[in-house]
Amino acid sequence: MLFVGSGVSGSLSGRDLKLLSVVEGCLRPNYSLVARELGVTHTAVIKRVSRLLDRGLVKFSPLINVEGLGFKLVLILLEVVNDEYISKLLERFRECPRIIHMFKVLGDYNLAVLAYAEDESVLNAMLGTCMLRTANGIRRSSVIPVTSVLLGEYLRIRVPRKEYLETPCGLLCSRCVKYVRRECIGCPATIYYRGTFSTIPPKKLGRE
User: Fold this and answer.
1) Which residue from 207, 185, 204, 201 is spatially nearest to 21, judged by alpha carbons?
2) Domain extent at residue 121
3) Are residues 104 and 81 in the same domain?
4) Same domain, yes or no: 74 and 139
5) Whole-angstrom Cα distance, residue 134 to residue 121?
6) Exposed, middle or buried: residue 28 (CB in 10 Å: 0-12, 13-18, 19+)?
7) How far apart are the first and last CA of the chain?
8) Residue 187: inside a domain, yes or no?
9) Which of 124, 116, 136, 127 is nearest to 188 (CA)?
10) pLDDT score for 161
11) Residue at 128 is within a domain
12) Does residue 28 lie in a domain region?
């Protein structure tokens, strides 16, 4: 796995983001080193790893230190009407670039979401008009800001690509009041994004 971030506030350059977007899902361990450690052949390790990948039990991907980049983490607890609405929410927000994890849980709430925001203004926009809390089927919600990551600071986050007019959840940043007023930098998956945590799709990149 590739670990990104130093634990101190920093930033990723455009080249860094392009690199991460290309290697995502393609990382592999050092098979020769693993074979020596286990006392087996290089081929045996490859076959074993391939089986685990085929069964969907493991995945190799770059991990990013969100807190090290100065991003905000938030845990959103939701009470959703029923499983049908949970399925609809999952389908709608499956490709949301700012959602890290989505869990079905037991208790007063039945859905939990871990998400990130580049800064405070983006977080306010996310929790207001353009995320799960305002979707159909939500009875109530609770927002818990993460003040500090004590364990597991490296998280799997996809590097977004600025390639869509519409957000993955079906909204238009250009029609959003917060975006027009520059109170939000927009969705990283759209061409309207004003932030730095996104990259241009490879086919649209010019020569460097």
Assistant:
1) 201
2) 70-155
3) yes
4) yes
5) 18
6) exposed
7) 27
8) no
9) 116
10) 92
11) yes
12) yes
Q: Where among 42, 65, 88 does a domain terminate? A: 65
The set of residues, in sequence order, having a beta carbon less than 8 Å from that of 62 and lying 6+ positions away, is: 1, 2, 3, 4, 20, 23, 24, 27, 156
Has residue 102 been placed in a domain?
A: yes
Q: Does position 9 have pLDDT exceeding 50, yes or no? A: no
> From CA 111, how far away is CA 86, in angstroms rounded?
8
Q: Which of 155, 178, 196 is the last residue of a domain?
A: 155
Which stretch of DSSP H or E encloses residue 49? helix 42-54
pTM above 0.90, yes or no: no
Per-residue pLDDT, 49: 85
pLDDT in tens, 121-142: 999 888 887 778 889 999 999 9
Q: Are residues 59 and 77 in the same domain?
A: no
- The domain tally of the chain equals 2
Question: Residue 63 CA to chain centroid, in angstroms?
Answer: 10
Tokens at residue 41, please?
């052949």
Q: Helices 31-38 & 42-54, crossing angle to 10 degrees?
A: 110
